[in-house]
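Dear H.,

Thanks for agreeing to be a second pair of eyes. The structure we're designing against is below in token form, covering all 395 positions.
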């Protein structure tokens, strides 16, 4: 992995304008600064994976063939600036293996905001290979946000209110994009921490999204909830594109998506194919329930599967296997099943059928699972988790 070298770009050079369109503007400054507020497990993981990806895009490609003047232009853009590199690298493979819908602009400068010097030291060590691109800011969130165009809120959920209510924070965020990854906190709550209220719902129905943001001098708040597998680039992140200031414009959806594709896969709510808001009360209830189910499956899913792993391991240990070997085999079998379903996009029942040879061990085990009501118990667990996620969203 090549070290990131943005040496030609001053870390705190030009920054994204505080216009309401935030990072959506393609004109003006080449620089887009991303500030991460709170650099613990998630903040550092997200930063590191973005920086790794940018470094990879910047690395020389020995076998690249330039076939047209357009390609020459895009190549020179690629090597001269990350900001311009988006178009040149369109079609690049994402962490999750699928081509990205590249945003107009990518972040070029990074501010890692911590509140304690010892955490700053840890962050510097974790990001040492990208040290020319990242500045660690200790106990100065507002100043960092003033210089950023895009901000990720990655502190503990219980600390978010204090962080956002700091004097000058609401003003510093004005017109910018604020991405909250804080589980258990809704976009409306973030609004309230910042401004003391949600934006006037009536205004949202008549104004364009840009007009809404600027009229209120507020930031755009997007909720993107990753899961624990972010650490290994296998997150299932749910991005809520229906922000409190209206639907997120496509270029910002692309930017948020690009960021979270660095740590795994992404789904959007409302689904990107649903460009129009739900017309009936029933349709909007169904959309809300589906969004809550997404959050539940994305965040709680790994916990459910961990329980299944534990049970399989315990069973194998009871039959005489060593725990270490049972754990390796169970986890690899689960990864294999998931990989087959993802790769072939086939119904899991087909996989189950293929494995269940007549008189074989799989069919015997599967019948025991069905007798134990595992299918309905897991489905009920999903419904309970969805209800809890919906409750969280309505608070
Ligand atoms: N971890 C996951 O798997 C996961 C999954 C989905 C969502 N999330 C969400 O992601 C967020 C971060 O989770 P995490 O696991 O990364 O937590 P974490 O490791 O505890 O990191 C949070 C960081 O925020 C810092 N912080 C708190 N207040 C701050 C302030 N005012 N200014 C600057 N920094 C501040 C903390 O600093 P100190 O060290 O000084 O306390 C800590 O380093 C949480 O809201 C969580 O709900 C996490």
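And this is the sequence the design step returned. I haven't edited it by hand at all.
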């Amino acid at each position: 992995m090549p070290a990131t070298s943005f040496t030609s770009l001053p870390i705190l050079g030009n920054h994204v304008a505080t216009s309401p369109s935030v990072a959506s503007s393609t004109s003006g400054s080449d620089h887009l600064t991303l500030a991460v507020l709170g650099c613990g497990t998630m903040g550092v993981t997200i930063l590191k994976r973005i920086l790794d990806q940018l470094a990879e895009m910047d690395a020389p490609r020995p076998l690249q063939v330039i076939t047209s003047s357009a390609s020459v232009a895009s190549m020179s853009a690629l090597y001269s600036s990350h900001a311009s590199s988006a178009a040149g690298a369109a079609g690049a493979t994402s962490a999750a293996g699928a081509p990205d819908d590249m945003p107009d602009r990518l972040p070029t400068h990074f501010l890692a905001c911590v509140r304690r010097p010892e955490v700053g030291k840890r962050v510097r060590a974790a990001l040492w290979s990208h040290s020319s691109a990242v500045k660690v800011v200790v106990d100065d969130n507002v100043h960092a946000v003033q210089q950023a165009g895009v901000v990720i809120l990655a502190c503990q959920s219980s600390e978010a209110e204090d962080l956002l209510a700091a004097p000058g924070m609401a003003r510093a965020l004005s017109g910018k994009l604020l991405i909250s990854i804080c589980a258990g906190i809704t976009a409306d709550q973030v609004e309230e921490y910042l401004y003391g209220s949600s934006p006037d719902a009536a205004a949202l129905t008549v104004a364009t999204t840009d007009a809404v943001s600027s009229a209120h001098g507020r930031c755009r708040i997007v909720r993107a909830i990753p899961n624990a597998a972010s650490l290994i680039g296998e997150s299932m992140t749910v991005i809520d594109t229906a922000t409190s200031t209206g639907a997120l414009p496509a270029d910002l959806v692309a930017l948020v998506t690009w960021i979270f594709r660095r740590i795994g896969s992404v789904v959007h709510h409302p689904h990107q194919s649903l460009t129009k808001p739900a017309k009936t009360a029933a349709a909007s209830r169904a959309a809300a329930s589906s969004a809550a189910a997404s959050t539940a499956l994305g965040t709680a899913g790994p916990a459910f599967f961990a329980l299944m792993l534990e049970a399989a391991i315990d069973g194998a240990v009871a039959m005489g296997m060593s725990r270490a070997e049972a754990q390796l085999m169970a986890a690899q079998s689960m990864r294999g099943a998931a990989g087959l379903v993802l790769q072939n996009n086939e119904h899991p029942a087909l996989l189950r059928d293929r494995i269940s040879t007549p008189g074989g061990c799989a069919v015997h085990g599967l019948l025991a699972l069905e007798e134990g009501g595992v299918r309905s118990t897991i489905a009920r667990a999903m419904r309970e988790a969805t209800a809890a996620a919906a409750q969280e969203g309505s608070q």
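Two observations from my side: The domain at 22-277 is CATH 3.40.50.720 (Rossmann fold). The pocket of NAP is lined by residues 37-43, 113-116, 119, 141, 154-157, 159, 163, 181-183, 225-228 (CB under 6 Å).

Warmly,
E.
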